[in-house]
Amino acid sequence: MHLPYPPRKASNPAPYLPRSSPLPGLRRTRLKLIALVALAFITLIYLVSRPSNKHADSVQWKPSGKPPVVLVTVLDEKKYGKGYLQTIVENRIQYAEKHGYEAFFAKVGDYDLKGAPASWTAVVAVRHALTKFPDCHYVWYLEQNAFVMNPELKIEDHVMQPSRLEELMKKDFPVVPPDSIIRTFSHVKGQEIDLVITQDKAGLSVGSFIVRNSDWARFFLETWFDPLYRSYNFQKAETHALEHIVQWHPTILAKMAIVDQNIINSYSKGAKGAQYKNGDLVVRFSDCSTAGKAQECETESQPFATKWRKAFANS
């Protein structure tokens, strides 16, 4: 029996390579280690010696509360009469001055909405107010077709105190009525809330809402105003966009509280939501803002204008 021939050696054998010494590799390892230590040391010196930026450092920075609240309203000068808008401006300024707040007014057309409906101006105006008043505690957006009716109620005490929020917030509650499978969290505490809003019979109502000044608030507003959601062409624009992101993003839902309408968003008529009653903070004319009904807003508001002026004069 013959064994097979061994394989033939290559005709061009590899050149002889001398055995490498471990010392060069060891030197390289030590040099790398020294470089990493030096880099870490330089980074530490930079972090310790650099000037502090209180607004960039969300861990250290806390707003001073000057002013405590910024009351934001967007005015549509093309759609509504000058006298009606002046009454709204007067109402906001008187309420803000009484409590040391700031009243911030934006106009439809002030911002480039990239073709989105004008109602999106509200979101940009709130973001603008946070930029202009970086030390405020809260921003309260209240649409133009509304009056502050009770001058005695302060946002800090009436709504935003953590203990007060614990009483007001609806837990394990459908986000979109009547039976949304997405519900507000049951374990969230008052001090964890950064967005306060209400519902009417149709869903979330964005005519009156409050955001706490925080990094989360900026994230929330940027998310809400994302071009993707503006491009969806929702029937109710920013309202349906908000309902969408709240139901799909737990990061936002976890910071949101739904409270009764009568706390910050009573309606002049009860067909679509909770009707205004004496002592409520706000009355909104929710039906008059549809196309072709601008004049009705002024007519409907007149009795309430007389009433809020009397309340403010006596406060």
UniProtKB/TrEMBL annotation:
Q: Which domain of life is it from?
A: Eukaryota
Residues making up the signal peptide according to the UniProt record? none
What InterPro entries does the record point to?
Glyco_trans_34 (IPR008630), Nucleotide-diphossugar_trans (IPR029044)
Keyword Transferase present in the record's keywords: the answer is yes
Molecular function (GO) terms for this protein are: alpha-1,6-mannosyltransferase activity
Please list the GO biological process terms of this entry: protein N-linked glycosylation
Transmembrane ranges, per UniProt, are: none
**Any one cellular component term from GO for this entry?**
mannan polymerase complex
One protein family per Pfam: Glyco_transf_34
Q: Which UniProt keywords apply?
A: Glycosyltransferase, Transferase
Which family does this protein fall into?
Answer: Belongs to the glycosyltransferase 34 family.
PANTHER family in alphabetical order: ALPHA-1,6-MANNOSYLTRANSFERASE MNN11-RELATED
**Would you tell me the protein name for this molecule?**
Glycosyltransferase family 34 protein
List the source organism: Canariomyces notabilis
